[in-house]
């Protein structure tokens, strides 16, 4: 009788572990390749970006600039501006000098 109970318990244990194994899913985190901004001398900013800064951010000065080149060759410029109050803000521009959201 002990052997029968042991066998039933063993079968139930194996059966339940298989049933629970089917419910387990592995979460796979997908990480997108993100380009990084490379520091850039302010003088190397495209003229369109410089003109946009002079027009729309005349009260601010440029602290630093960086460029990111996407896989398709498009460039995004990140410009850190400092206003009269000393507040820093980063603004993204495309090659045409348009502000990106």
Short description:
This protein is an alpha+beta fold and 101 residues long. It contains two helices and five strands, in the order H-E-H-E-E-E-E.
Layout of helices and strands:
Elements: H1 2-23, E1 38-40, H2 47-56, E2 61-69, E3 75-82, E4 88-93, E5 99-100
Antiparallel strand pairs: 1-2, 2-3, 3-4, 4-5
Protein described:
It is a single chain. With 101 residues, this protein is α+β, with helices and mostly antiparallel strands. It contains two helices and five strands; from the N terminus they run H-E-H-E-E-E-E. Strands 1-2-3-4-5 form a five-stranded antiparallel β-sheet, with no helix packed on it. It is elongated, with a radius of gyration of 30 Å. The N and C termini lie far apart (74 Å).
User: What composes the largest sheet?
Assistant: 5 strands, antiparallel
Low-confidence stretches: none
User: What is the strand arrangement across the widest sheet?
Assistant: 1-2-3-4-5
Q: Please, what is the average pLDDT?
A: 83
- Sum up the overall morphology in one term: elongated
Coarse structural class: alpha+beta
Instruction: State the share of residues found in helices, binned by percent.
Output: 25-40%
How many runs of DSSP E, i.e. beta strands?
Answer: 5
Alpha-carbon distance between the termini?
A: 74 Å
Approximately how much beta-strand content do the residues carry? 25-35%
Rg from Cα:
30 Å
Comma- or semicolon-separated keywords:
5 strands, 32% helix, alpha+beta, single chain, 101 residues, 5-stranded antiparallel β-sheet, elongated
């Amino acid at each position: 009788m002990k052997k029968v109970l042991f066998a039933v318990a063993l079968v139930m244990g194996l059966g339940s572990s298989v049933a629970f194994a089917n419910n387990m899913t592995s979460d796979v985190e997908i990480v997108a390749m993100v380009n990084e901004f490379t520091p850039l001398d302010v003088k190397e900013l495209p003229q369109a970006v410089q003109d946009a800064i002079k027009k729309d951010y005349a009260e601010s000065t440029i602290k630093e600039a960086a460029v990111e080149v996407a896989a398709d060759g498009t460039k995004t410029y990140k410009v850190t501006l400092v206003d009269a109050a000393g507040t820093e803000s980063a603004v993204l521009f495309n090659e045409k000098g348009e502000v990106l959201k």
